[in-house]
Amino acid sequence: MVQRIAHQISEFRAVARLGCALALTAAILFTGCQTPQMRNLRKMGVLPEDISDRIAREQGGPIGSTGHTPPEPPTAESKSGGIFSRGAEPEAPPANTDTGVSPIPSVSPDRGSNGSKQEKPNLTKTNLLDIPTLAERANHLGRKHDGGHVVATVNGTAILEEELRLAQVQSGAEDALNPNRRRQALNTLIDREVAILDAEAKLGKSPQGKKFLEKMYEYGGKEFSRYTRIIKEKNKFENEDELKAMFRQSGVSYELMRRQTERNFVSMQYLQQRVMPAMDRIGHRDLREYYDGHPELFKIQDSVNWRHIFIAKVKYKTPEEARKQAEEVVQQIKAGEDFVTLSRKYCHGDSALRDGDGLGHHPGEIRPVEAEPILLSMKEGEVAEVLELPAGYHIIQLTKRQYAGMKPFNEVAQKEIRDKLRNEVATLEIKRLLAEMKRNAVIEIMPDS
Asked: Domain check: are 254 and 315 in the same one?
């Protein structure tokens, strides 16, 4: 059932890719970290230019540094029970005495499709930190809590089986039960949760940081609304109730989908801010060193872009009549008439299906092969003499010529290198940040997960 909803709402895979980037599989998203949301927040004064540096100062070192004070080593008890646990346990918040769960705080309201103010779903998280020993927690993991089985916790925040299955489907996994896919999806959810917990801890220390976090949740809600609007339009649903009914019939929680979207969005935006200073330190010297050190990446092959019209002899009474037609077309091209129009009117070959584009760009690929030496000797814009072959006459025009050599170290090449280096730096920096966050978190995973 979950796979069925995945097919119908493939637009949500864009959100899943944000989550996958936390697992370092979509670093390209970090090219140009100044997202529209970030620019809007800066205009509003919510997000200061140095927010990422302020966050770094909170942990006692600049972003990009490797200095870290490790937490106290876990006790012998924390290694028992078949549960993977890191770091020291934080103080547990008071649990609801009736249900044993603590509500997830509602960060900011969202607005429905009719413009009215709508409260966020009152989702809950299971607080396993209230259970005194890890052995008992191991027993507790996997039991049903608030409609779902808990497969892992991050500082007491539960990750449910439903979340894990949804993350697998969103990532495009064909087999939702594949153990490797399941493990990857769980790691992605854990990365997301440790990032959000770190964001709440660091941004919650100042009013401006709290406002930034609230705005990120608000933008995450808007992303969800945008995706659901697309789904409603595609399925011709008239209202929100029909959309929710489709989710229910497919076995997917509408509220869970909203939560996934918002939390993926917030964690990604937060991590982008954390890595920006390291990315911005890439300078002109770094670009030049990369260019000089990787000449094989900047080689240019001999290539041509060209146009082609084939006049078949069999379409005319005599070969001479076919040649005359070909020569008339050449004169029309030289007079400035549209090549595509002429191709559709006169061409008897498959280049008419490509709007007159010739077949092949590099030496050895060009067809017919007799056209290759002619093209390599022509100038851009030039029309060749009619080429006669046994089947008919070929009209050739060269539109672009690129000679073998090295790409120049110009703005285009520098942008290409900068984007590549920024992605590499972002990948490494996020990996380091997440590893550090995990060392300071209590992560418990059900053994079978």
From this structure: no
Please state the pTM of the whole predicted model.
0.56
**pLDDT tens, position by position, 23-79:** 333 333 333 445 566 566 555 555 555 555 555 555 443 333 333 333 333 333 333
Does residue 141 share a domain with residue 88? Answer: yes
- Collapsing DSSP states into helix, strand and coil, what is residue 130? helix
Residues 190 and 48 in one domain: yes
Which pLDDT tens digit goes with each residue over 366-406? 999 999 999 999 999 999 999 999 999 999 999 999 999 99
371 and 427, same domain (yes or no): no
Residues 358 and 376 sit within 8 Å (Cβ to Cβ): no
Residues 6+ apart with CB under 8 A from 224: 110, 257, 258, 261, 262
Beta-strand relationship, 303-312 and 392-402: antiparallel
Contact present, 9 and 231 (Cβ < 8 Å): yes
Residues 6+ apart with CB under 8 A from 124: 99, 101, 102, 103, 104, 146
The total domain count for the chain is: 2
Structural domain harbouring 142: 2-281+421-445
CATH number, domain containing residue 392: 3.10.50.40
Same domain, 195 and 67: yes
What is the 8-class DSSP label of residue 408? -
* CB contact at 8 A, 397 and 347: no
Distance CA 30, CA 26 (A): 8
